[in-house]
């Protein structure tokens, strides 16, 4: 028996369509009735839960630890590392003489493990470090400045700094940053929005900050800000929520004061994403997907920043992700990072002409993260590398020798199980070819219990990476498949747009077709097939289980969006209507109504076994989505498969401690194993 959940006769008429919402009362997490219902769901979950059979192995595989790409400032460099027994990565500095010191250790700040390090930014000389932390998963970052030499706090906390870039001026006396207006200055319910760009002078009150940008613009805007290495050029970017486009301005700080920069338009009202790098040679390097869905690099003169010429043109099948310039060479070069169907590579080009002159050796077919160079130039670059069986490593490329060598490995020694990874291509419902990674035991025979995972949104690519839960599942005899669905960035911006707004059904069709391909090729059967997704991927599996309940045996749905009619009213939902559309708009409402999972639960249907996992401090996606959907499915379920809710406190949508990560992954895998026969 499921916990009692009353069904109210709430029906709204939206654009002529009656929209029932029987569980709206579950939106109020402070209501005693809701709290009672959640307690009853917790008891049900605990009664259903089995011993976490994967817990020890996931924890063992996570003892690899991790290591981050270095950031150079003169002879100092900064990086993050997590050792086998640490709950969180620690941020370090290495001085010119090789002395390594811990600068920020989240566990030293808070031994409970609830504090996370959200962002870091050393100043241009490497003498001061800006960092942002939040507590309990709420992602409400507070900004601090410390002295790198002594570790002493210079200033902070400065609140309301969620998602704030920090752009230092030379000398470390001031920086530009982004901060929300105080809640007292904005309408009720809008305190998560209304950002502004400010200039702050270190050691002064934030009351004296000068507002530089953002006044009178859309409340859902996000802003980017950066300052060139020499301090001359300021760059400000504005995008409406998560829209795949931005407006861009620059200012010459040698010709106008830092407090009143005279901004020049680079692009405005253009449906494209563009960012600039101010080269040491005086040129602007432009990374843009304007007229190039898979992106290109152009060059421009700062005197005329909107006139670009191609340097690295768009590739017909690889997406240009990033680049680095090495100019302490007889022939300066540009390293260009690409993903080809979600697998990374780096090419080498003449900086003058853009001519392709070679490749940068990489360790394998995996994911390269963040090519980093010395700000003052040089002949070396560093980049992160990982794949399905390799914990994060840092590789160093030397342009003088053309060699790539291992610079730093994850510190923990773990025995990774042997697995076989292949990339397959299948046809979606409309004939579109879609790539999928399949990770399986090397000696798999016949159909096996399989987890199909996907995301399909916001231009985010599903690339290979070391995953303790994937390896634990495959080691136990299962198969794990990751589909590169439309809506993601695997094939460029056109691929993203083919799965957003009015095209969202393409994402679900791609996912169903992935499942059908796995069944047709003998990898699994529908009774052995589970699906898993979180956040926008939670929406994906929510839509999948309501559209094709017959196709799947089990579902793990984490931090999901599920009520697509009211999603804009909660968390950061208002920033996502550029991705999904708005139910308030008569032309957009039908897109959402067509698939909104909560509204497509039907009585007397046998639904797959479903586990919802949500996080009480999630300020991005409110847990109410899963609460309402769980109640609806429990009411409607005609079959025997359980519908259960795992509601976790003091964590949110993003970073969490290792032990919390292990518990969540073990609960999900244990549930999916039970209902797929692993």
TrEMBL record:
Residue ranges of every copy of the Peptidase S9A N-terminal domain listed in the record: 3-408
Signal peptide: none
Protein's UniProt keywords contain Coiled coil: no
Every Peptidase S9 prolyl oligopeptidase catalytic domain range: 469-677
Keywords: Hydrolase, Protease, Serine protease
Annotated SUPFAM superfamilies: alpha/beta-Hydrolases, Peptidase/esterase 'gauge' domain
Pfam families: Peptidase_S9, Peptidase_S9_N
EC code(s) of this entry: 3.4.21.26
Recorded catalytic activity of this chain's protein: Hydrolysis of Pro-|-Xaa >> Ala-|-Xaa in oligopeptides
Keyword Protease included in the entry's annotation: yes
Matches recorded under PANTHER family: PROLYL ENDOPEPTIDASE
Similarity remark: Belongs to the peptidase S9A family.
UniProt-recorded name of the protein: prolyl oligopeptidase
Organism the protein comes from: Nonomuraea mangrovi
């Amino acid at each position: 028996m499921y916990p009692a959940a009353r069904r109210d006769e709430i029906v709204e008429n939206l654009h002529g369509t009656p929209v029932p919402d029987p569980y709206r009362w579950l939106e109020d997490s402070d209501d005693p009735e809701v709290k009672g219902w959640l307690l009853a769901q917790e008891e049900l979950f605990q009664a259903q839960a089995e011993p976490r059979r994967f817990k020890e192995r996931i924890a063992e595989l996570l003892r690899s630890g991790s290591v981050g790409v270095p950031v150079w400032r003169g002879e100092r460099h900064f990086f993050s590392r997590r050792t086998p027994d640490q709950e969180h990565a620690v941020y370090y500095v290495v001085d010119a003489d090789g002395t390594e010191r811990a600068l920020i250790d989240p566990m030293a700040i808070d031994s409970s493990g609830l504090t996370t390090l959200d962002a870091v930014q050393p100043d241009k000389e490497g003498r001061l470090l800006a960092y942002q932390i939040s507590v309990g998963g709420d992602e409400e970052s507070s900004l601090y400045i410390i002295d790198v030499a002594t570790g002493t706090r210079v200033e902070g906390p400065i609140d309301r700094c969620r998602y704030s870039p920090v752009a230092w001026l030379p000398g470390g006396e001031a920086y530009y940053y982004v901060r929300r207006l105080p809640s007292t200055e904005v309408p009720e319910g809008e305190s998560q929005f209304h950002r502004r760009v400010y200039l702050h002078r270190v050691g002064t009150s934030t009351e004296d900050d000068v507002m530089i940008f953002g006044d009178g613009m859309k409340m859902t805007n996000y802003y980017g800000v950066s300052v060139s290495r020499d301090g001359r050029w300021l760059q400000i970017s504005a995008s409406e929520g998560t829209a795949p486009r931005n407006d861009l301005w620059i200012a010459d700080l040698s010709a106008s004061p830092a407090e009143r920069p005279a901004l020049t338009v680079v692009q405005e009202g253009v449906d494209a994403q563009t960012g600039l790098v101010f080269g040491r040679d005086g040129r602007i390097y432009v990374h843009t997907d304007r007229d190039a869905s898979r992106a290109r690099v152009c060059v421009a003169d700062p005197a005329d920043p909107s006139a670009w010429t191609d340097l690295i043109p768009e590739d017909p099948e690889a997406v240009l992700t990033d680049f680095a310039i090495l100019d302490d060479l007889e022939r300066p070069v540009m390293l260009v990072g690409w993903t080809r169907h979600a697998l990374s590579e780096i090419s080498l080009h003449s900086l003058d002409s853009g001519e392709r002159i070679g490749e940068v050796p990489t360790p394998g077919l995996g994911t390269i993260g963040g090519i980093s160079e010395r700000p003052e130039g040089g002949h070396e670059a560093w980049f992160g590398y990982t794949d399905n069986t390799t914990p994060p490593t840092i590789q160093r490329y030397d342009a003088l020798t053309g060699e790539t060598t291992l610079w730093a490995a994850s510190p923990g020694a773990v025995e990774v199980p042997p697995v076989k990874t292949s990339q397959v291509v299948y046809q979606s419902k409309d004939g579109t070819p879609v790539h999928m990674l399949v990770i399986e035991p090397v000696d798999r025979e016949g159909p096996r219990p399989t987890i199909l995972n996907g995301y399909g949104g916001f231009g985010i690519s599903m690339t290979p990476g070391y995953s303790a839960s994937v390896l634990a599942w495959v080691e136990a005899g299962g198969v794990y498949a990751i589909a590169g669905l439309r809506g993601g960035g695997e094939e460029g911006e056109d691929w993203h747009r083919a799965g957003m707004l009015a095209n969202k059904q393409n994402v679900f069709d791609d996912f169903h077709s992935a499942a059908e391909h796995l069944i047709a090729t003998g990898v699994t059967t529908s009774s052995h097939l589970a699906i898993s997704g979180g956040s926008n991927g939670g929406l994906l599996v929510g839509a999948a289980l309501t559209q094709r309940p017959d196709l799947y045996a089990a579902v793990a749905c984490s931090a999901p969006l599920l009520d697509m009619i009211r999603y804009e009213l909660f968390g950061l939902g208002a920033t996502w209507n550029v991705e999904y559309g708005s139910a308030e708009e008569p032309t957009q409402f039908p897109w959402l109504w067509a698939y909104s999972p909560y509204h497509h639960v039907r009585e007397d249907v046998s639904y797959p076994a479903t586990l919802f996992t949500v996080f009480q401090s999630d300020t991005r996606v409110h847990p109410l989505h899963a609460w309402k959907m769980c109640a609806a499915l429990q009411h409607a379920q005609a079959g025997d498969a359980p519908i259960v809710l795992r509601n976790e406190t003091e964590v949110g949508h993003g970073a969490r401690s290792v032990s919390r990560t292990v518990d969540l992954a073990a609960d999900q895998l244990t549930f999916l194993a039970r209902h797929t026969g692993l």
